[in-house]
Amino acid sequence: MDRLAPLIETLNADGRLRVWSLVISVFGDLVQHRGGAMDTARLQRILGRIGVEPGAVRTALSRLSRDGWVTGDRNGRISTYRLTPEGVGSFAQATQQIYAAPRAGPVTEWWFETGTEAAGLPFSGGVLRPAGDTLDPGVSFRLAGRITEITEEVRAGFLSDSHRASLDRLAQDLEALGPGLTDPHDAAAARMLLIHRWRRIVLRFPDIPAELMPADSPLAHPRAAVAAGYRALLPLAEAWLDTEEDGMAAMPPSDGAEQTRFVPRA
Q: Are 20 and 60 a contacting pair, CB within 8 Å?
């Protein structure tokens, strides 16, 4: 049985496949810590593992080049691509959200805020978020305190139908991965798919702390589940990036950045 088949199925269930977005996920997660460039043979190999045709990869690269996301270089028969400085900047803005560490303990103190730039879970005309998170200069009002009572009805209001559906597919992917993945190529493709789905969730929906997550949520601790899945895939996926075969050059050594993802800062 193809261990990646369930992940590929949920990817296609999302609707029309945006190959260019997958390419961005590859560059952001598998390339930046390895010198920043990937040859087209390796890019086609990892996307081909999930059923993307070479022609679709070329079309995606052409679009990303035209839009200023990537730039290409040719050395003989080998073509390589890297993110442009603008592309690196755009992805870097999202990196902190994507790879932030799971919370180390329960949230006991909360902020209720209002203001033009207040960021958090929409609630009663303002936003609710754990106290001590990054301060927003646009906040006009802040109330700090503890939550002493919260009903399931209130919890359910934090999780929209589209957010729930996305978490459900994420839970399916994580369950399908499970233990026992042994092929480095499969691990690299699985890691790409995991981060691609997670990237779309964290950049689209607000983070819901476990204390506010509905009891019937597909995942009680989504970030912790993703972090665990990512760490399990990391060694084998990195081993695939070190391989050289069939005209596919090994990638430069890692700068170690992948080891700090989902890890609390010292």
A: yes
Q: Which residue has the tokens 């509905």?
A: 214
Quick one: CA torsion of 212, 216, 218, 221, rounded to 10 degrees? Answer: 30
Give the relative orientation of helices 54-66 and 19-26 as an angle to the nearest 10 degrees: 80
Cross-strand bridge partners of residue 207: none
pLDDT in tens, 104-114: 889 999 999 99
Domain that holds residue 198: 5-104+153-260
Q: What pTM value is reported for the model? A: 0.92
Judge if 199 and 226 occupy the same domain. yes
In a domain, 120, yes or no: yes
Indicate if the alpha-carbon torsion angle 126, 133, 116, 90 is positive or negative. negative
